[in-house]
């Protein structure tokens, strides 16, 4: 006992800033978004001191590397496609919640950014003529919904990896400093201006303070809120929680997308490509049931529709039970596809089935079910990626890009391939904005001290009790999946809120088995759990608040969309479970400009 | 087909605070298609929260979770219990960190150190060739791409480097060679001479003894040895130094 | 030729399962290389007594012991294994022959054949062939193989010593197995100092031996340095060891040359 006590004290005295580092730009998160931003800065302003922090052991291990299918961009040389169609698809997909100024900006710069990536060495798949190959993807159409568009460029089924590899290389070339396997635990402010962050370096078990003239949040998604997710282990909503703790709002946390075809068990994503190359969904009776839900688009309907269709089949008893993981699922049938498709177009995905469930997709049906996939909600930003404090006011020095941000390009439902597009376009735009900052701002950085990090970590160190963080997290994930997942109801959501409160309470009774700071996963997981709980709570409360169905947010008790809710939700959380709601209007500038086809950008119906 | 297995993981552990290493047995009940990462998580949740292990995507697509199981370097996130039992013919598994960089704790190694070698070969286009159609993509024939596209699939899991007969001191490692070869074969790169100099250096291909363990263990099934041999056969461009 | 099953050699198969047969074979190649270096050093030392025929003959008498004969025969295993596998490596690396499985099967097959033939010869022990004729043929084989390899490995980017190691390997691939064969075609050719000395009066035979010696000393020396580099990270240590190896090999070469030229 005495020994433990002494050790505990020694640990708490280790909770101090070990080193202070000054730089021009601090980037928190090295996925596609963070890296693209860094590279833009190097290109335009060589010699800028950029520090990038990532939670994973190396930037290449970031979640973007896992993205498979592709990246949407309209080729100006394409005789049939047009940016207007892409904007329309995005707007329609978003269920009238995307901000049209953002949509226009991103869609119009898309092709330039694809070319940029290609010119910097990304290994895009090619057609016979040596140009970039394109393929179709769910929700992307020609002529305002008439037929499928060949709009997604891709690198086989590892597009995200291609992007990260290219950007990581370019960032190295630019002279970036990485701080790997480290977490940002607190944003630092001088008055209202963000001036950096506190970083906990897991490998060394110490804290460094990074003071920066501009700080970028690019921490990615929050999939670990749910039990079955395609997201990586590190996607624990850290960035969103950092913002909330700093008194900033998060926007539309209830807008969570479920990918219709996660592979049963690990939840690994069986890419949309499977459906675009002709995979057919079948229920227990082998009926191709999508014909009933989306007669025209069938398997190519947007994700939320397909996800709900599958969930419905399962709920109505037409699913199949997998005994190992104890989950119900439907089948995706790939048996009729030619060998060429298996070998060339989807080798990695069919490989997944072979590897992860021991199934040969050429001969057998493959088990899939909806799993959590993408968080449309996030830290609200304007069209330059600047973080907003309210509907208009921005936070000087703070930028957010990528999945953790909500600009909002995706509104309430993201189209496949639109996320990678957002990373590379918004990353670049944010980079440009930062360069403007750096050229205006005086090169002075104030000395500020962290306020919350040490009390938070000391609390984790001192907590005593029998609870286990891992198990609590599983419980939370189960609650969120059941009550705040694909189908939501008033009753279920209130239950979820109560359960989350209880879990928060119980989390106070976890005691760490080791008080070491060095590579202490239990400690980091405890911290992550706090983040997950906070964002889950925000999600559940916002979902409760939104008494309508829109995009991926489906309320069984309010199955229709309701114009009354045609605004973004801003959620502030001063302490756990105590939220204030704000509103941000949806930008409808394309509609308001009244140009050609403007009527397609009104409050249109979302039917496929 | 059995549906459950009683297995034992004998995990090599290391505590950096006390600089002590030991091995510890964990007995688990597992379903047939649970993966080793699921098992590690299970250990954290049910037996021992202090066990440290690494993973990220858990899709076999990032290379973070590489460990040695019964001596074989592999990705823990794609090793199913059922396959492991069938392959190794036992239910006792020795799990160790990969031997390519210093251990930080338990199964976690300092990947940053390992990556230094990849960074040395400059994993980007050093000097792009002039684009005949500025503002457009380069045209790359799918035939040309075919020759090296396999090599672009490397996820830097370092399984190959762990298995290689050359210990990892003087050698840049199979995956660094691979990354080099990709850019040498990439028609958009013009700095071939610089790249070849790195490849034909003392840390380069001469440290490879064609033991081909790299191709054998690569979880992405890349024929690494083939690409290294291409360099030995002098297949890249004009002979002689510029 | 040899079906997969035959590869289930107990000592190796678990390792082969984890890292593949070529990996196991690479280790065998390394170990056989080391054994051969050790043997060559000892061998050159032993030949030094050619200057004193009685001592040489007395030394050679020792080989009549059963155990030593067995050992002598056993030496053919690393020789032939290393030679054929070295040939395979050159085929794989420089000639683009990448079908490894069948190459490994051929390698095992040929090696077993050679060892068996040598064993039979040793048991019979009475043949007699004209040395000049024999070595003329062998030299022609060795040199033509080496020149074949030359065209493939002579990329000027390659480090010179590496190229030379491949060349000597191709040359030795013919020369070394032949050397052992020859010595057993008629045992007295090797074991009787007089016979050896008489043979070595021929300038051509001196030339053959010296070429063999130089090729070997270089090849073995480079091999040792190459192994050392795999394990040493400190530059000073590597250079130090390389110098030490070079010195040892030079001394051996010098001793060999001296005795060849003086007898
Ligand atoms: C399986 C899968 C397939 C997908 N396929 C596609 C597709 O085909 N097309 C498409 O457009 N989109 C796709 N997506 C979506 C897309 O991949 C993601 O939305 C996108 O990669 C997010 O990128 P990001 O840069 O915002 O974040 P990430 O790539 O998740 O990177 C986040 C970074 O932040 C770091 N980080 C997190 N928290 C902290 C912290 N506290 N401190 C420090 N660093 C931190 C992480 O380590 C990481 O480096 C897919 C997603 C999944 C899950
Ligand atoms: C008989 C014909 C021979 C051939 C065809 C041959 C071929 C080769 C080849 C191709 C290599 C390179 C392997 C690599 O890439 O590491 C090699 C390595 C080596 N050889 Fe030979 N060799 C022969 C004879 C010998 C002899 C007689 C000796 C001993 C003096 C020897 C000692 C070595 C050593 C020590 C190595 C290094 C092994 C390693 O790096 O693991 N070789 N040989
Ligand atoms: C066991 C079988 C062997 C016997 C009986 C044997 C015998 C001899 C003899 C008698 C000579 C003297 C020169 C001559 O007659 O041409 C000689 C020279 C030589 N042998 Fe062998 N040898 C054997 C195996 C080997 C092996 C396995 C190697 C290499 C690894 C080798 C390498 C050499 C070399 C390099 C020379 C030349 C030495 C010089 O010219 O100084 N021998 N050997
Ligand atoms: S070549 Fe294969 S084993 Fe080696 S790092 Fe790349 S993916 Fe891993
Ligand atoms: S395992 Fe190593 S020895 Fe060469 S062929 Fe592969 S790099
Ligand atoms: S965790 Fe990404 S490869 Fe296993």
Shape of chain B: elongated
Q: What is Rg of chain A?
A: 23 Å
How much helix is in the residues of chain B? 25-40%
- Average pLDDT level of chain B: 93
The total number of structural domains of chain B is 2
What proportion of the residues of chain A form beta strands (DSSP E)? 15-25%
Q: What is the CATH homology-level superfamily of the largest domain in chain A?
A: FAD/NAD(P)-binding domain
Mean pLDDT metric of chain A:
92
Fraction of helical residues of chain A: 25-40%
Q: Give Rg of chain B in angstroms.
A: 20 Å
CATH architectural group of the largest domain in chain B: Orthogonal Bundle
Write down the CATH class of the largest domain in chain B: Mainly Alpha
CATH fold group of the largest domain in chain A: FAD/NAD(P)-binding domain
Number of domains of chain A: 3
Distance between the termini of chain A: 66 Å
Biggest sheet strand order of chain B reads 2-1-5-3-4
Unreliable segments of 5+ consecutive residues of chain B: 238-242
CATH class of the largest domain in chain A: Alpha Beta
Architecture overview:
- The complex is a heterotrimer of chains A (608), B (242) and C (263).
- By secondary structure, chain A is α+β, with helices and mostly antiparallel strands.
- Chain A folds into 3 domains: 16-68 and 159-256 and 374-440, FAD/NAD(P)-binding domain (3-Layer(bba) Sandwich), CATH 3.50.50.60; 259-372, Flavocytochrome C3, Chain A, domain 1 (Alpha-Beta Complex), CATH 3.90.700.10; 453-584, Up-down Bundle (Methane Monooxygenase Hydroxylase, Chain G, domain 1).
- Chain A is 36% helix and 20% strand.
- Chain A is built from 17 helices and 23 strands.
- The longest helix of chain A has 25 residues, at 521-545.
- The model of chain A is unreliable at 1-9 (pLDDT under 50).
- With 242 residues, chain B is α+β, with helices and mostly antiparallel strands.
- Chain B has 2 domains: 4-109, Beta-grasp domain (Ubiquitin-like (UB roll)), CATH 3.10.20.30; 111-232, Orthogonal Bundle (Fumarate Reductase Iron-sulfur Protein, Chain B, domain 2), CATH 1.10.1060.10.
- In chain B, 31% of the residues lie in helices and 18% in strands.
- In chain B, helix 6 (174-185) packs antiparallel against helix 7.
- Chain B starts with a strand and ends in a 10-residue tail after the last helix.
- Residues 238-242 of chain B have low confidence and may be disordered.
- Chain C contains 12 helices and no strands.
- Chain C starts with 9 loop residues before the first helix and ends with a helix.
- Residues 1-6 of chain C have low confidence and may be disordered.
- Chains A and B meet through helix 4, helix 5, helix 11 and helix 14 of A and helix 1 and helix 3 of B.
- Bound molecules: flavin-adenine dinucleotide, protoporphyrin IX containing FE (2 copies), iron/sulfur cluster, FE3-S4 cluster and FE2/S2 (inorganic) cluster.
- FE3-S4 cluster is lined by residues 163-166, 174, 208-214, 224-225, 228 of chain B.
- Flavin-adenine dinucleotide binds next to helix 2, helix 5, strand 9, helix 6 and strand 17 of chain A.
